[in-house]
Amino acid sequence: MAEQTAEGRVVGSGPVAVAIGRRPEPVHDVAVYAFDGMAPFELGVVVEVFGLARPELSGLLAAPWYGLKVCADRPGTALDAVGGFALVARYGLDELAAADTVVVPGVPNAFGGEVSPALVAALRTAHERGARIVSICSGAFALAAAGLLDGREATTHWRYAELLQQRHPRVRVNPDVLYVDNGDVLTSAGSAAGIDLCLHLVRRDHGAKVANSVARRFVVPPHRDGGQAQFIEAAVRPVEEEDDGVARSMQWALDHLASPLTISLLARAARMSDRSYLRHFTARNGTSPMRWVVTQRIAASLPLLESPEGTVEEIATAVGFESAATFRHHFGRVMRTSPTAYRRSFGRGVA
């Protein structure tokens, strides 16, 4: 009778010598850096996206979910966090340097503190061996200190953008975007923009359907259009009764994406005048109604592009664009790639 070794090989011969118990597909390891005095939000975003068990994705995943390790300069030592509590990281920088994706959610003091030399060395080691390096908020200063942003476009929180440019003049700092994807090195703006970037990573690795499912559990949109400029020193807007009308119009638009949509139709769904609707929608969402509609149509096109069925022209029509050319134009503006390139990268069963 055939016997199987610990490595998953089958020994023996004959009809019973079947291959069973092979090693599972390797898990993509994500390492996130923790440090003394950190604000816990950005760390929590990474843990929520990559460390949470997700049984709801069992039928959608073509590859295993991520394995997460929280790493620090001195593993096992309590790290004080903003808010009066402490956490202990089990793993050190050797594990961080060996991960497939490394996330730096911030640095202790962007305005004057030195980036940990040990972290800089670990980032360089990880990058040299082909890891994907990611920063959130002030974490861009660590990537810049490691030389990983030289000659590249990058972003950080708008409060730090000018300082990052002054301190690292070889970096092309873009203070207006929510995140920048350079392939092997990615940077995001402050705090909540880390959610946008983490969902983008999930979309890159597992496709739009999986990213949309994670976004739903997060109770956030799977993709936000526009940049962080819309959030700079914005006044807090009082809650108004008309908000219910705006929300109703947004749901109506999502139910009719394939149909022609205009300001007048959306205003009618909200039971407002065109002028009042435009003002309230923009104040609520930080973007115009039609720009929002375009973003929703792009989001709706992603799972269709991941399927081998349908041409780009057919998909453009299915999500409400008047032509394939218009679809390609807006897709390139929002996703920074073409529909064909996206399908080539993320399509399931597409040659």
> From the structure provided, what is the oligomeric state, counting identical versus distinct chains?
single chain
Radius of gyration: 23 Å
- Structural class, judged by helices and strands? alpha/beta
Shape: globular
Main-sheet strand order equals 4-3-7-8-12-11
Helix content: 40-55%
Number of helices in the DSSP assignment: 14
Distance between the termini: 41 Å
Instruction: List the secondary-structure elements in sequence, H or E.
Output: EEEHEEEHEHEHEHEEEHHHHHHHHH
Beta-strand proportion: 5-15%
Q: Ranges with pLDDT <50 over ≥5 residues?
A: 1-23, 229-243
Mean pLDDT: 85
State the total count of DSSP E strands: 12
Main sheet summary = 6 strands, mixed
Summarize this structure briefly.
With 351 residues, the protein is of the alpha/beta class.
Task: Show the helix and strand layout.
Layout: E1 3-4, E2 10-11, E3 29-33, H1 40-51, E4 67-71, E5 78-81, E6 85-88, H2 93-97, E7 101-104, H3 117-128, E8 132-135, H4 140-145, E9 153-154, H5 161-167, E10 172-173, E11 179-181, E12 185-188, H6 193-206, H7 208-218, H8 242-255, H9 263-270, H10 274-285, H11 289-306, H12 312-318, H13 324-335, H14 339-346
Parallel strand pairs: 3-4, 3-7, 7-8, 8-12, 9-10
Antiparallel strand pairs: 1-2, 5-6, 11-12
Labels describing this entry:
single chain; about 350 residues; alpha/beta; 6-stranded mixed beta sheet; two-stranded antiparallel ribbon; 14 helices; 12 strands
Characterization of this structure:
The structure is a single chain. The chain has helices at 40-51, 93-97, 117-128, 140-145, 161-167, 193-206, 208-218, 242-255, 263-270, 274-285, 289-306, 312-318, 324-335, 339-346; strands at residues 3-4, 10-11, 29-33, 67-71, 78-81, 85-88, 101-104, 132-135, 153-154, 172-173, 179-181, 185-188. It is of the alpha/beta class and 351 residues long. The strands form four sheets. It has a six-stranded mixed sheet with strand order 4-3-7-8-12-11, with helices on both faces. Helix 3 (117-128) links the parallel strand 7 and strand 8. Helix 1 (40-51) runs parallel beside helix 6 (193-206), helix 8 packs across helix 9 (263-270) and helix 12 crosses helix 13 (324-335).
